[in-house]
Design a protein that fits this description.
The protein has 479 residues and is α/β, with parallel strands linked by helices. It contains 15 helices and 21 strands. The strands form 6 sheets. It has a 6-stranded mixed β-sheet, sandwiched between helices. Strand 15 and strand 16 form a beta hairpin. Helix 3 runs parallel beside helix 7, helix 5 runs parallel beside helix 7 and helix 7 packs parallel to helix 10. The chain is globular, with a radius of gyration of 23 Å.
Length: 479
């Protein structure tokens, strides 16, 4: 009798477990964009990347590129995106468009003539932008978009902040639409990209951004909840005056999204500039994946410099099939650098260990100048360990400004003298990236107080799981 009772209890337990598994599986199939329980145990930067990896696994990339002549036509073209598939849309120019096309290698390129209707203004333009974001998720407006996200199990990983009066706003629409993020507006003046904000201006910017994020209704106050990144797509000063030391200028992207005790509630990325370049940066972030990398180490192989050696980073990248070119001491010198930069670079990832000022950088034995920043054949994500390189990022006569001008779509660099420890060693940064943490999050000292490294580009760009490409015939553009 006892054996029968135990056997019955065992069978009941097994059946109950089976029912639970089937129920959970059924629930997950109903919420296809929800992270699995195992992912929720990962560190928050990895969770952010895994959300994008989940999205990439569910939504196909159609192997086409659509080229448009202006912002109004861009807005109409983006509204063709859906959960069935998405494709790059660029505002065509003679510089960045060819770089993207060479790297993406689309099966078809479609040039769309300008739409007849002029671009709306004011609240009408904002509504059109929001409708374009909703359309990418098969919704019609912000209310139905939130319902769609809830139904699909999608939790926004961040917020995109722009201004309808800023030329870069089309990039904000693209990143909000693709990444499944609320698009919000901040219209006040916070300076130009090369400016230094006063402490008071910075405080006003911080308050304005937090109030804007709060209005989305999603949890944001601690890392690991919903909103862990903010993407600023508009003009603002790159640096601000430190309250603690008048001689220090700190990175705006590092000072933002912090609680009163200084702890982060999010990490910021930043895009500014012309419509064509801003959209190019967004499309590179969404659709490109790395195949090649340059690792250039000008540091001596001793002392504290050894922490920044690149052999381990190279090994990690090789393991995922990235073709590596690495240069270190004693090969690293001015002659070697100029030999490398005598032709256009075809590297998707660039890691440089250097030192210097805003207009020069050490390449081992010798000092390179701004004109020695390589011309790029393909778009590049750049991690540049160096002082001052991004102090005026809108000035092409500075190191960081020239990288951006030449086509870098992600850039981590310093706005002031940061000291070496401000930078993440390449081996640790790549290790983070290989676990799906986004590039710019991987470049951050995440637990430090506000300091001097700025992060330019989409903060959610990952270099692990990409979308599968499908032929254009599978998803024709609706007429």
């Amino acid at each position: 009798m006892r054996k029968r009772l135990l056997l019955g209890l065992l069978v009941f337990t097994l059946l109950l477990g089976l029912v639970f598994v089937l129920f959970s599986s059924n629930e997950n199939s109903k919420r296809p964009f929800a992270l699995p329980a195992s992912a929720l145990e990962e560190p928050w930067p990895v969770q952010s990347g895994l959300r994008i990896a989940t999205l990439n696994s569910k939504i196909s990339t159609v192997n086409r590129v659509v080229l448009v002549p202006d912002e109004a036509t861009f807005l109409a073209a983006i509204r063709q995106w859906s959960l069935e598939g998405r494709w790059p849309v660029l505002i065509e120019d003679n510089k960045y468009t060819p770089m993207f096309l060479q790297r993406f290698e689309p099966a078809e390129v479609i040039r769309v003539p300008a739409v007849k209707d002029s671009l709306p203004k004011g609240e009408t333009l904002q509504n059109s932008m929001l409708q374009a974001v909703a359309a990418a998720w098969n919704a019609t407006d912000m209310e139905s978009l939130k319902q769609a996200w809830k139904r699909l199990g999608w939790e926004p990983p961040g917020v995109v902040i722009t201004s309808q009066n800023d030329p870069a706003w089309p990039a904000a629409v693209a990143l909000a639409a693709d990444r499944g993020q609320p698009l919000v507006f901040l219209e006040d003046n916070f300076g130009q990209p090369n400016d230094t904000l006063s402490a008071e201006q910075m405080q006003r910017l911080e308050t304005s951004i937090e109030n804007t994020v709060k209005q989305t209704g999603y949890p944001y106050k601690k890392l690991g909840d919903s909103i862990d990144t903010i993407t600023l797509v508009r003009d603002l000063g790159v640096k601000y005056q430190s309250l603690k030391n008048a001689k220090d200028q700190l990175a705006v992207t590092d000072g933002l999204a912090r609680n009163k005790n200084g702890e982060r509630w999010a990490v910021a990325g930043w895009i500014a500039g012309s419509p064509a370049r801003a959209v190019y940066q967004a499309m590179c972030a969404i659709f490109l994946e790395p195949k090649t990398a340059m690792l250039y180490n000008s540091y001596q192989q001793k002392g504290s410099w050894l922490e920044y050696e690149m052999s381990l980073a190279a090994s990690e990248l090789k393991n995922i099939g990235v073709k590596i070119q690495a240069v270190q001491q004693p090969q690293a010198d001015l002659e070697k650098w100029r030999d490398l930069t005598a032709r256009e670079w075809e590297f998707d990832l660039v890691f440089v260990n250097s030192s210097g000022d805003k207009a020069s950088f050490n390449v081992g034995k010798g000092q390179a100048v701004v004109d020695d920043v390589p011309k790029l054949k393909f778009p590049a994500a750049v991690h540049f360990i160096h002082s001052w390189s991004a102090t005026t990022p809108d000035d092409p006569e500075t190191v960081g400004g020239r990288w951006l001008e030449n086509g870098a779509y992600l850039y981590a660099g310093s706005v002031h003298e940061p000291f070496l420890s401000a930078f993440i060693p390449p081996k640790l940064m790549v290790k983070r990236m290989m676990r799906s943490a986004p590039f710019l999050l991987s470049a951050r000292q995440l637990e430090s107080p506000p300091w001097k490294v700025t992060t330019i580009g989409d903060p959610l760009t990952i270099f692990t799981k990409q979308r599968r490409k499908i032929p254009p015939t599978y998803l024709p553009i609706p007429k």
